[in-house]
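Let's sit down with a protein and look at its sequence and fold side by side. Which protein we use is up to you, so please pick one and set it down. Label the sequence line and the structure token line clearly, so we can match residues to local backbone shapes. Go ahead whenever you are ready, and we will take it from there:

***
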Amino acid sequence: MKLPVIFYPGEDGMVFAKCPVLPGCVSQGKTRNEALENIKEAIEGCIEVRREMGWPDTEEMIDVEVAL
């Protein structure tokens, strides 16, 4: 399963990662690679819990075109 992940810098020098199709699924690491490994683990946990709750694996995400 491929899921989108967003990385952004934290104020304390850490790298934060979140999966936008899994609300509340966030992690962090000292480097981007560490944050990536940590978010993968968090994603697995989030999907496991969602399945236990009877929810779909992910929330729906669509692309929207805007004119700027």
